[in-house]
Amino acid sequence: MKILVCISHVPDTTSKINFTNGDTEFDTNGVQYVINPNDEFGLTRAIWFQEQQGATVTVVNVGGPETEPTLRKALAIGANDAIRINATPTDGFFVAKQLAEVIKNGAYDLIIAGKESLDYNGGMVPGMTAGILGYNFLNACIDIAVNETNVKAVREIDGGKETVATSLPLIIGGQKGIVEEKDLRIPNMRGIMTARTKPLNVIEAVDAATNTKAVKFEKPAPKSAIKMVSPDNLDELIDLLHNEAKVI
Amino acid sequence: MSILIYAESAEGKLKKVAFEIASYAKKVAETLGTTVTALTINSDNVSELAKYGVDKVLKVTNDKLAGFNAKAYADVIKQAAQQENTKLVVLSSSTDSIYLSPLVAVNLEAGYASNVIDLPVNTAPFQVKRNAFSNKAFNITEINTDIKVIGLAKNSYGIFENASTLTEEVFSPNLEDNDFDIKTESIEKSSGKVSIADADIVVSGGRGLKGPENWGLIEDLAAVLGAATACSKPVSDLGWRPHAEHVGQTGKPVATNLYIAIGISGAIQHIAGINASKVKVVINTDPEAPFFKVADYGIVGDAFDVVPRLIEKLKAFKAQNA
Predict the structure, then answer these.
(1) Averaged pLDDT for residues A91-118
(2) What is the rounded CA–CA span in Å between residue A156 and residue A160?
(3) Nearest to B279 among A14, A175, A247 (CB)
(4) Taking Cα atoms as reference points, which of A93, A117, A92 lies closest to residue A38?
């Protein structure tokens, strides 16, 4: 089984979010980048397929040379090789077009992406990629088992979960649950050393329309100060929630 | 030219999110000088959509579509959009709609903006405001394609009555066999409880509750308020509560009217997941807990002392205001 794990290179959660150039660009100054958490759950699941079922795991990312440390980290965690599509990821459709090309050329059986990235929160790349290729697609996937080309998987639904049966090739939007937080792997020294010599192929992007464009960013208005209520005056809290906030 | 919405239903009954996207679409339609068409799939009674400004309903009734199937539903939405010559499709942010929206966008060769939180900033060029960076910033996105798809964030616009005269039309889409390559085997739902996705109020507990045996406090408070229960990440990692209740960046997102955090310090990952909630209340013994910086109302106090008294007071309040 050939697995492709799509990796988004995103600011660490604790990063300060600021914008430059008249609020049209994200300010990367002093920002630490990580593997998008939803993708890291998927990467770990892919490594299990590699260890238990002999799958090969390729990681892919659309981005400039500055994203290579993130791909090297994925290699250190255990991926066999990496592909960097050398382009600025302008919008979800553009990225999906690039991934579709790699998937078609590489004949991957299972494509694991995170259900959304923590920077733009678009939540569209896995679905669009599946739409372009006409592949089966399962979003918000929290469990998956593959037996030859048969797949049994579970997705999260509002207020519960749904078990489905389908077949490869398949694209999934993964999230926590596909593996748990405790299953995530921290690269060890040996992994880091071998990652340096694993193949990281840089390929050029194919032409694709940019259907949407982020034209400006805004930060939320500063929040008004918290109103403190004495624990001995709970009537005041109920009054505030009823008359001021109007939520009860 | 009509705006198309996909008005979701559960067990034949229209969901609240359907009324929110109808209200939103009506307002946009007024700006653009057009009308709103709603697509429904196996909904029993669609007349209520008239209250929120829907002019026409395309009613699909088909046993093959009895259970949700993203590919098939996305195909049906595409066919409805083509019949109506729609230039704008508005979808909700339910788990199912988030799943099918990118497929609809590819089907229609449309640009898609998700997580939209307000009316369009501009209609020519078409620009919308959306949440990004886990609710830490807004992003104005321009959609350049002829047909546009937007996903409205839950609870971001609200439900407004704006009565219209509704016409109902039977719509019979063509379904392909390969629409059903993903087959549902079983569905498990926690019965009798308000789900986090549908709740107007969420009561959430953290490590400050000291152990799973004390969760009665959270459940009792939730019961008085008709709220869903949730928990912080450490609580689900410790196994005190099921993972399905974990809210935060890697857990479920919460965008509710009222979020009550009890014994939760407010780690940045937790706040990122719940910050879209309108009103936040924190009850914590530690006045330095970061949650106090983001909440609207706060009580410094012991949950074991405050919450039981709050439950009694709320019961009295509810009895009075019933």
Answers:
(1) 97
(2) 6
(3) A247
(4) A117
